[in-house]
Write a structure and sequence with these properties.
26% helix; BirA Bifunctional Protein, domain 2; alpha+beta; OB fold (Dihydrolipoamide Acetyltransferase, E2P); 22 strands; single chain; RNA-binding; Gyrase A, domain 2
Length: 580
RNA sequence: GGACCUGUGGUGCAGCUCGGAGUGCACGCCGCCCUGUCAAGGCGGAGGUCGCGGGUUCAAAUCCCGUCAGGUCCGCCA
């Protein structure tokens, strides 16, 4: 149906998918690619003409010589199909174009793979011919979904009074955190720009500059190894606001993300709940819990505190109930044990819950109390399996958390969308080889004000005012309340082993700016690639990126990365060490 | 840096365990036939460095070693 006039151009009247009963009898022009040609001898042939909106059938003379993927302009009369020839699977299936004039706008060789979705095509081939791949319905849907999400996020931020500011792609190196992509300077040989891992510092400077509500749909670049959910370049909804608390940020970002969810799925999720980092680790063994399914971790430490069973002699003993898991074969149990060991566990104990009690190689070593605790874990039923790991607290949680996911996590395309804010991350994640503390997030993260006194006495216990947004086990983004007070910032730098001089040379322009009136501020960044991938039901963000890189960082279509010319090398005054 | 998986006409797969002629299936492509198809149908045909290199063997798509490419994961991603 012709509801939007943007379908019409100088060459066409409407999109292929819009040719329906509402335009019956009209003479119209459509443009598109030949999806299929069905010939019935000299006097009759059917052409399916495709554009992104769909397919329309044109009835032509058999002498029209066009092949798959030819680009055509067809002018014809929209006619009701003869009785009994309606195709209910097409939106245009009640009509067809008759008395057609066919104009070949572009001939085409047969494509390297079929455009229809009848068989999967190897991703290597798809990426080499990405311009053909994106003709396919799925890629059209995914990229258009992405555009809708972008537009919705932008609208939501603007509605909330946020101002979009573009920050530089050529920025100063800040050797900390992710490896940066480096850009040599021609006008200043031997000196370099870097591409931003995020607009973090720029947006904090905008806070000093009085843009109290900033956002940007920002490209970020990190020269780190790629994964299914990580590309060199990715896109974030980057947000920062002044005179706010964590709760304000949650409200701003929730509004935008829930708007996007509604636009993408047709349903608006309820308000996003929060969970502390400590709870997430304790209950799900991870800082990005997948809440689509239960299988919580349960603590058994107190029961096993005086155990005689060597395998369970550890600070923490935790268990996980696998509903129906008693049916697991021995080889599956062995595989789980291998997975646990691969994650650093000393071993994995398993107990089948049977009518007679517990079935396990370890069962006969348990005391009655221990057996009862395992038998009753998480209200276990006959037919369940109980997995038990004994280790240091964090290790035990993480191992069981990983097992929980590999046993229970539904595919990305399944299940409800379950958002959660994870709060109160630790400020420091550990100690480096020099004995200096390491930031969990970044060095501008505000500590929890109740924990300020712990910075010197017990720094690893210091909670921060930082937070992640998690959706179905994927980290969608993270943010924090930033430090705007010089005294706290200098305490953090000193805990991190960053001297005043070093802080000045690395972050001098930020610290300098803060001397001129820094408002309290906080922010967040939402990973749009991941958000759209989950909306699209894809387990790989390449499926929602037009021209992604392979896992080794190459572009199979353009051949990048490539040599540059001798002239470019000379201009940049580059010399190269021999390849090792 | 590491572990595992994959690589066979244009596309997708089978063949590999247990070596015996490039064998098979589906789609596509080309030609002919076909006036209501829409996963059109019928007949015929073309199309191959079994990723690449080496080794074992009378003989290698198949076994072994190496290498390249793609993927999943670990490390890494303040």
């Amino acid at each position: 149906m012709m509801t939007e006039n943007f379908e019409a151009t100088s060459m066409r009247d409407l999109l292929c998918g819009s040719v329906d009963l509402t335009v019956t009898g009209e003479r119209v022009s459509v443009c598109g690619w030949v999806a299929k040609r069905r010939e019935h001898g000299e006097h009759l042939a059917f052409l399916d003409l495709r554009d992104h909106s769909g397919v329309v059938q044109a009835v032509v003379d058999g002498s029209v010589d066009v092949r798959s993927e030819y680009v055509l302009r067809i002018t014809g009369t929209v006619s009701l199909r003869p009785e009994g020839t309606v195709n209910e699977r097409l939106s245009t299936g009640e009509v067809e174009l008759t008395d057609c004039e066919v104009e070949v706008l572009s001939a085409a060789e047969p494509p390297p793979f079929q455009i229809d979705e009848r068989s999967d095509v190897d991703e290597q081939v798809r990426l080499k011919f990405r311009y053909i791949d994106v003709r396919r319905d799925k890629m059209q849907r995914n990229l258009r979904l992405r555009a809708k999400v972008n537009a919705t996020l932008r609208r939501a931020m603007e509605r909330q009074g946020f101002c979009e500011v573009e920050t530089p792609l050529l920025w100063a190196p800040t050797p900390e955190g992710a490896r940066e992509f480096v850009v040599p300077s021609r006008l200043h040989p031997g000196e370099f720009y870097v591409l931003p891992q995020s607009p973090q510092i720029a947006k904090q400077l905008l806070m000093v500059g009085g843009f109290d509500r900033y956002f940007q749909i920002a490209r970020c670049l990190r020269d780190e190894d790629l994964r299914a959910d990580r590309q060199f370049e990715f896109t974030q909804l980057d947000v920062e606001a002044s005179f706010v608390t964590q709760d304000d940020i949650f409200a701003f970002v929730s509004e935008a993300v829930l708007d996007a969810a509604e636009a993408a799925t047709g349903e608006r999720p309820g308000p996003i709940s929060t969970m502390t980092w400590a709870d997430a680790l304790d209950r799900y063994g991870t800082d990005k819990p997948d809440l689509r399914f239960a299988m919580d971790l349960h603590d058994l430490s107190s029961v096993f505190s005086t155990t005689q069973v060597k395998a369970f002699t550890a600070p923490t003993v935790k268990g996980l109930r696998v509903p129906g898991g008693a049916e697991f074969t021995r080889s599956r149990l062995d595989a789980l044990t291998d997975q646990a060991k691969g994650l650093g566990a000393k071993g994995l104990a398993w107990f089948r819950v049977t009518n007679d009690g517990l079935d396990s190689p370890l069962a006969r070593f348990l005391s009655a109390e221990e057996a009862a605790a395992i038998r009753g874990l998480d209200d276990a039923n006959v037919g369940d399996l109980i997995l038990v790991v004994a280790d240091e607290y964090v290790a035990a949680c993480k191992v069981l958390g990983a097992l929980r996911l590999s046993i229970g996590a539904p595919p990305v395309s399944e299940g409800p969308h379950h958002y959660v804010w994870i709060t109160e991350f630790p400020l420091f994640e550990g100690v480096d080889e020099n004995g200096d503390l390491v930031s969990a997030h970044h060095p501008f993260t505000m500590p929890h004000l109740d924990d300020l006194d712990l910075i010197d006495s017990d720094p690893l216990q210091v909670r921060s005012q930082s937070y992640d947004l998690v959706l179905n086990g994927w980290e969608l983004g993270s943010g924090s309340v930033r430090i705007h007070r010089a005294d706290i910032q200098s305490r953090i730098f000193s805990a991190l082993g960053i001297s005043d001089e070093e802080a000045q040379s690395r972050f001098g322009f930020l610290l300098g700016a803060f001397k001129y009136g820094a408002p309290p501020h906080a922010g967040f960044a939402v990973g749009i690639d991941r958000l759209v991938a989950i909306f699209a039901g894809e387990d790989n963000i390449r499926e929602v990126i037009a021209f992604p890189k392979t896992q080794s960082g190459t572009d199979l279509m353009s051949g990048a990365p490539k040599d540059i010319t001798a002239r470019q090398i000379r201009d940049l005054r580059l010399t190269f060490a021999p390849k090792v």
